[in-house]
Design goal:
It is built from 41 helices and 19 strands. It is an alpha+beta fold.
């Protein structure tokens, strides 16, 4: 029987043709071929990826090619083709993030951009995407100060201890680091990409995806040393806050690795070096932030970094095995601790010990360290040393002056300044600064002091030597500025006698008085030089104005308009040295004395009085200057108003005068106080008020009307510490000087200050944000009232007495303005003739500035300590700014300067400075001309006063100063200073600084007068 299935047929059945069978077979073969090709492609891709992961062959070429276009160049002008970083601990510490602000501040301080780094277009685009510019970052950086020869005199390199070269890193340190952090860096492939550890990266990616999906998986880190460095240095807060941050770290690290070449062996070594120098290790007590293994060893264990490396590089030695094991244990501990530094280094010491032991065993098991080293390290324990280290504060006063000036310009603290990637080119001469500093410090030794000649009458005894401090400053007149070449003293304290003090420098004030006098002579000569003799006879000279009277008489008698000859004649005027006269000054009668009794009978010329430093002629000269400044012959003086006492137009004239004159004082006092805090305003004001309970109480009650009587008691105790006030006395003073008891003019008279100064202070207390226009507008009624009192006093004698006091106050304000133009550093001078003898105080640096004006023919040239500032050298942020010296200001005429210079030379040739006469000689055998002024200050506080006379006092300090010029280009000051009550035991005079300077000349002369520029680098235009 046949099979029914074989016979079954369907209506739609069509037998396949041979063509159709062939097509079906072809389709199956195509699918198989596609699958095969896809598998081959996958295999090829896999092989390629495996090859690329292993060798980094192609990525090294592509990234290197791209990286070579990310360049910058330093151009000799300012540019905006640069993008500064906005965050990153490394960039913040080095100052890169603040460079735009620093540049702006320096430009406002008179600096100009000489050269600046400019990004290529590709680097601009790259940085705008958020990537970090590639460059070889410094192992150490910090403030460097160079002297005028471009030699370093100070550096604050940070970290203080670092590996400068990869060859210096012991293999045990490298192996430990790579074992713990990044073993792929051992890869032998020359082009290996050290930025991505692919297995760890993939696992880290999976954990991130799982976390996003809400799955619970333990986090795995994918960071390599290269990306960690980018994070530590350039990511915000040194952290990875997002995937974007991680990608920026990876991209930036790859460019940094491959930019210099496809071979990464050197780059990997540098990664190890950078990591060891960079890794953050928390903050140690007394040290601050710790970065790098080197600083970590010192900050946490007080282990010497260089000693530690020598031990590890030297190999096993039984004699040093224990110490070698200890330092290695410390290094391993720091590498482990970097993951949780605040915990392990501050609290978790026991946990850290356990981890160190386990890592030591692992290192030996992998044959990465010598078993002997492991045994030595295992036998030790970590000894944390939290003693505060001694900060390396420089005691070089010149360096400190540069640091303080730079910090002020940048609005930075000294701590932050020292961390900046900044080189400052100063004007100092490093060798000379060091030699002079050493010389001054050696003067405390008896043997050396005796050799120099400091022991004897009016000098010192052997017992006194250690208690005397010396300060010296030397300037050079050079290229339109006064460049500081030496600034040093004999103390290691930060206090700077030259600039940080207010001292009574005695007779040096006579130089200011003489300069003021000659300046007035020159002004009057200019005013009257075109007048005929007939015109001169018609000039109405106020009787008390002896200076104007002399100028007019001189012009009438000599018919000589030559200023030089007039100034010489003015210096030949004679002034009595008699001490038997009482002077009405400072609101009362005062008596002055000469240094030597025998001088009382003299009647010297001003030349001779300066030469021998006789006191009374200068008191009388100051009296003449005050009388001139307060006379109607002095333009703008209040005395012009008094001449019109009977004039029917007096009221109208009074108003006009009050508004014009008063507005001048309002402006002056506003400028004096407006930028200060309320506390600082009052402090400055009260420092200028005489320490009298009545004057202080009156002003305190006026300026502080809401304070209680107990507040007044505390205030007086602070200002007059040697006097004890009972509650009854305080109550009497409090009630007597209530704010409603006296008008403004009376308050000014009581306090011996200008009433408008009180008004401006009170106004600023009430309206601290007021501008000049507001103050002037609101002062108009007060101006008239302040001057009207002159005509309301009933009794002629009382009025004259008050007029005399106020004219003197106004005169000293005018004199103070003149002194400030000559560099006087303080906001007021005591309105007393005693200012001619130094009672207003001074600073050695300010006296030197006056001497500089004399050396510069009457021009006040700027004082320069900083020539250039160069930020971020050899980085994409490099910028160099140079000091664009401002133009000197003409203070007085050249003829005045010449006359003063001749008078000062006479002091050295014949007077108090004669021990220096002929002491400096040029190389050609000629003598160098010297000039100067001596001064001795005995600053004391009265502890007992009887009948207006000081009968008992306590010494505050004693000073002796010599302000000098050497030849045509150099000038400066030398001061001897004894602080505190022990100054009572000293009686030295200005002979002491003269002798000290004489002993210093063998150091100075070969440098200053050898026919070679003092600063060779500067003279070469560097």
């Amino acid at each position: 029987m046949s099979d029914p299935n074989l016979d079954m047929k369907f209506d739609n059945y069509r037998p396949q043709s041979s063509q159709q069978k062939q097509k079906a077979n072809s389709s199956r073969r195509g699918k198989l071929l596609f699958i095969l090709l896809f598998i081959i492609l996958l295999v090829a891709v896999g092989v390629f990826v495996a090859f690329e992961v292993k060798t980094s062959h192609y990525q090294s070429k592509l990234v290197h090619h791209y990286g070579t276009q990310l360049t910058y160049q330093v151009v000799p002008f300012a540019t905006d083709k640069v993008i500064y970083p906005k965050y990153g601990p490394f960039d913040i510490r080095h100052g890169y993030t603040k460079l735009p602000q620093y540049i702006d501040k320096l430009v406002k301080n008179g600096f100009t951009i000489e050269q600046q780094a400019s990004f290529s277009p590709m680097l601009m685009d790259y940085t705008e995407y958020g990537f970090f510019p590639p460059y070889h970052e410094k192992a150490q950086s910090g403030l460097i100060i160079q002297d005028c020869r471009n030699q370093a005199v100070f550096d604050a390199l940070y970290p203080s201890r670092a590996y400068q070269d990869t060859d210096m890193i012991p293999s045990e340190v490298v192996n430990t680091l790579l074992f713990i952090e990044n073993r792929e860096l051992w890869n032998p492939e020359p082009n290996h990409n050290p930025v991505i550890d692919w297995p760890r990266f993939v696992v880290a990616g999976i954990t991130q995806i799982a976390e996003k999906a809400g799955l619970n998986m333990s986090n795995a880190g994918g960071s390599t040393l290269a990306t960690q460095i980018e994070k530590f240095r350039h990511s915000e807060f040194g952290l990875t806050s997002s995937i974007e941050d991680k990608l920026l770290q990876i991209g930036s690290a790859m460019i940094r690795v491959y930019q210099q070449g496809e071979n990464t062996l050197a780059a990997r070594q540098r990664i190890v070096q950078d990591y060891l120098n960079t890794v953050p290790l928390s903050s140690a007590p007394g040290f601050g932030e710790v970065h790098g293994i080197g600083d970590g060893l010192w900050a946490w264990f007080k282990t010497d970094f260089n000693r530690a490396n020598r031990l590890l590089l030297s190999g096993h030695d039984p004699a040093t095995a224990a110490e070698r094991g200890q330092v290695f244990r410390q290094i391993v501990a720091l590498m482990i601790a970097q993951r949780r530094p605040s915990y392990y280094l501050l609290k978790g010491h026991d946990d850290l010990e356990v981890l160190v032991d386990s890592h030591l065993r692992l290192l030996v098991s992998y044959a990465l360290i010598d078993p002997k080293l492991m045994n030595s390290a295992m036998q030790q324990q970590l000894q944390f040393d939290r003693r505060r280290g001694h900060p390396d504060n420089p005691n070089n006063k010149g360096v400190n002056a540069v640091r303080i000036r730079t910090a002020s310009m940048l609005s930075s603290s000294l701590f932050d300044l020292d961390r900046l990637d900044l080189t400052v080119n100063s004007t100092f001469h490093g060798d000379l600064q060091q030699q002079v500093g050493d010389y001054l410090r050696s003067l405390g030794q008896q043997e050396y002091a005796q050799k120099v000649g400091l022991l004897g009458e009016r000098l010192l005894t052997p017992e006194q030597l250690p208690n005397v401090l010396y300060s010296f400053t030397l300037f050079e007149k050079h290229q339109g500025a006064n460049r500081v070449r030496v600034q040093t003293d004999s103390t290691d304290q930060p206090f700077d006698i030259n600039e940080g003090s207010k001292l009574e420098l005695g007779s040096t004030a006579k130089l200011r008085v003489l300069a003021t006098y000659l300046e007035i002579i020159a002004e009057l000569q200019h005013r009257f030089e075109d007048k005929t003799v007939t015109d001169l006879y018609r000039i109405d000279v106020e009787p008390k104005d002896k200076i104007t009277r002399w100028v007019v008489d001189y012009l009438i008698e000599t018919r000589d308009r030559n200023l030089t000859r007039m100034l010489n004649a003015a210096l030949e005027r004679r002034y009595s040295a008699s001490a038997y006269e009482r002077f009405f000054t400072g609101g009362g009668l005062h008596v002055f004395s000469n240094f030597q009794k025998k001088e009382d009978s003299r009647n010297p010329t001003l030349y001779e009085a300066l030469q021998d430093s006789v006191n009374l002629p200068f008191v009388r000269l100051m009296q003449d200057i005050v009388n001139y400044s307060s006379s109607y012959n002095s333009e703008g003086s209040m005395a012009q108003l008094l001449r019109n006492d009977k004039d029917p137009r007096r009221e109208e004239y009074l108003k006009a005068f009050a508004k014009r004159e008063g507005s001048t004082f309002v402006r002056r006092f506003y400028r004096k106080y407006q930028s200060l805090s309320p506390e600082a305003r009052l402090a400055i004001f009260f420092n200028g008020v005489q320490a009298s309970e009545h004057r202080l109480s009156a002003t305190y009650r006026f300026l502080q009307p809401y304070k209680s009587d107990q507040d007044l008691k505390l205030f007086l105790a602070e200002k007059i510490p040697d006097k004890i006030f009972s509650d009854k006395q305080i109550s009497s003073l409090y009630n007597k000087y209530g704010s409603d008891k006296f008008n403004l003019a009376d308050q000014g008279y009581i306090a011996r200050v200008h009433p408008l100064e009180l008004w401006v202070l009170s106004y600023l207390n009430d309206y601290p944000d007021a501008n000049m226009t507001q103050v002037l507008e609101d002062s108009q009624a007060t101006l008239i009232e302040v001057y009207r009192w002159l005509f309301r006093t009933r009794h002629q004698n009382a009025r004259d007495s008050r007029i005399k006091v106020m004219l003197e106050v106004e005169a000293f304000l005018s004199i103070h303005q003149r002194w400030q133009r000559m560099g006087y550093p303080f906001d007021f001078i005591v309105p007393s003739l005693g200012s001619a003898l130094g009672s207003s105080g001074d600073r050695p640096a300010a006296l030197a500035e006056l001497m500089g004006i004399i050396q510069n023919d009457g021009m006040r040239a700027p004082t320069i300590r900083i020539e250039e500032l160069q930020f971020a050298t050899d980085t994409p942020y490099e910028v160099k700014l140079a000091n664009s010296t401002p133009q000197p200001i003409q203070v007085f005429k050249p003829e005045v300067a010449t006359a003063l210079k001749n008078a000062l030379a006479n002091v050295v040739e014949k007077g108090t400075g004669r021990r220096l006469n002929g002491s400096i000689m040029n190389v050609d055998g000629t003598f160098v001309r010297l000039g100067g002024k001596t001064g001795t200050g005995d600053n004391r506080i009265a502890t007992e006063i009887r009948n207006g006379r000081k009968v008992s006092s306590t010494a505050m300090n004693r000073t002796a100063t010599f302000v000098f010029y050497l030849g045509d280009n150099y000038f400066g000051t030398l001061t001897a200073f004894v602080p505190g009550a022990k100054a009572d035991d000293f009686s030295f005079t200005s002979a002491l600084p003269l002798q000290v300077l004489k002993g210093m000349l063998p150091i100075l002369t070969p440098q200053l007068f050898n026919q070679q520029p003092l600063c060779v680098a500067e003279s070469a235009g560097i």
